[in-house]
Amino acid sequence: MADVAQLKRVASQTRRDIVRMVHAQQSGHPGGSLGCADFFVALYHEIMVHDPNNWNMDGVNEDLFFLSNGHISPVWYSTLARSGYFDVKELATFRKIDSRLQGHPTTHEGLPGIRIASGSLGQGLSAAIGAAQTKKMNKDTKNVFVLMGDGELQEGQVWEAAIYAGSKKVDNLIATVDCNNRQIDGDVEEVMSLGNLRAKWEAFGWNVMETNGNDMDQLVGTLKEAQSKTGKVSPIVILMKTEMGQGVDFMMGSHKWHGIAPNDEQLAQALNQLEETMGDY
Amino acid sequence: METFENTGNKDTRSGFGAGLLELGRENENVVALCADLTGSLKMNAFEDEFPDRFFQIGIAEANMMGIAAGMTIGGKIPFTGTFANFSTGRVYDQIRQSIAYSGKNVKICASHAGLTLGEDGATHQILEDIGLMKMLPGMVVINPCDYNQTKAATKAIASYEGPVYLRFGRPSVPNFTPVDQKFEIGKAVELSQGRDVTILATGHLVWKALEAAAILAEKGIEAEVINIHTIKPLDNEAILKSVKKTKCVVSAEEHQMNGGLGDSVAQLLARNYPVPQEYVGVNDSFGESGKPHELLDKYGCGTKDIVESAERAIQRK
Asked: Is residue B24 located within the same domain as residue B161?
C-alpha cells in the first residue's frame, strides 16, 4: 500500500524546490512544474522500478521515464535529486552557467536520470516508443513512461507516434498527458482546441484512462491500474487533469505563470503555502 | 596516371543494402527502420532475413528519427532509411535535438541524394543535405563514391559510436574501388598523384574527377585526385599535404556550393594555407527533372566542369 501521506509530504518539498529554483535564477517554468509535482513524486517514489544509485543510460530491467515537455524541468530535477540521482545541493545551479541542470533537460552534460534531450516539443513519445521496442527486443519486461503537455499535442509528430504505437501494439508504454488546458498564448481550448481527446486516442488504438493529477490517492491508483494493463496489445494513455500552478494560490487559475519567475515577495508568499518537509536544499 | 577499372555499373544504394544485410548477420544489435521506401533503399533483404529487427515506420520520418534515438537506449544500433531529402531537411529538428544533441548512436542512411535522383525533379533532389548535417556538432558526414565503398562504409559506421549521416544515390555508376577495401572514417583516399592541381571530389563526382584527370593528362596537366568520402571530419592532413605540393585546388560535389565540401575545404585552407580554389557544384539553384547525366552537365557538375575548373585554378596560381 502506498503511503499517500508521505508522498504528499515529498510533493510539498518538491513544490518548494520548484519555486526556489526558478526564483534563484529569475528564469524557468514554475506553472506546469507545480501542476505535475504529484505525478513526478508518485512515479519516482511509488510506481517505477528504478535504481538511482546505479544510474546508466540503458536502464536494463528498470522502468524508464521520458519527459517530452522539457520546459517543466524544475519538477523533474527536484524529483531526481530527492530520489537520489544526484545531490539536492545541485538544484542551486539550475539554469546557471556550467550547470548540469540546463534550462531544458539534456544528456549533454551527463546529468543522471536524463536519457534524451527535450524542449523542442512533440519528440518524447517517439523516443519512448523506441526505448519500449528495444525493451521488447531485449526481453526486458519493464515499462516505459512518458509525459507530454496537452498544448504539445498540437505538434504533428505526436500523432505520427500515436498511430505507430497503436498500429504496432507497443503495449509496454504508458503515456500521460498533462491536461491543464494552458499554453503560452492562453487556454488550449481557445488557442487551438484539441476536441475530444479521449475519442482521438481511442481512435488511434490506445487504452485511455483518466485521472486527477493533483489527487495523490487517485493518481497512484490510476498509475498502478495502468501498470496492470500493460502487455495487453494496446499502449496506454492517461489523460491527467491538473491545475497549472497547483499549490501556490496566485499561480493557479491562468496561463500567466507558464514561464515567469516569482519576485522576492512572491517567493515568500509561495513558501508560506508549502510546508518544508525534507529540508530545503 | 593510374587507371581505374570499372567492374560494371552499380547503384550505391545497393551497396548500402548489401552492407546492411552483412551487418545484420554479424551484429545482432543492428536494427533497421524505414519510412515506406524499403525497395528504394534496398533494405528488403535485411527485412526478409531479420523481420524482428526491421521496423516499418510508415510515411512518418519525424517519428522514425525519434524512435531510432529511443532504440539506442538499451544498446541497439539503428539504421534509418529514406531519401536524403526526408532524412535531413524534413526532420532537422528531430535529428538536432533527439539524435545529435542527445549524442545517440543512430546511423541516418540517405539514398537518392543530389541531382542524379533524376526525373523526380527538384522536390526530391536535395542539394543542401551535406551542409545541414555537417553543421550539427558531433555529426559524422560520409558520401562514398561507388557500390563497393558504400558497402564498406555501411559496415564501418556500425563500429563507430555516435551519430552518422551516410549519403548515397539512385543511379548506376561505375564501380571501381576495391571490393575488400578497409573503410576508415575521416581518412581520404588518394587516387592519383600529380603536381599541378589537387581535385577533391566526393560521392558520384569522384569518378568524374578521374575522367577529368585523364583529359587533363592529355593536355600535360598532372592532377592529384583525392576521394573525400568523409566530409566531416575532414582529412585536413591529406588535403594540406597535397595542396602544399600543387598550390591550387578544385572541390567537386553533387551539392550546393554553399555549405558543402567546397566550403569545408575553403575554411581549412583560409586558416592554414590559402591557395586559389575553384568550386564544382550547384550554384545557388534548385534542380529539375531529367536524366542524371543531363542534370550533372546542365548544373555544372560534369567532367567538363571539373576540367575547366582545374585549368582556371592553375591559371590563378
From this structure: yes
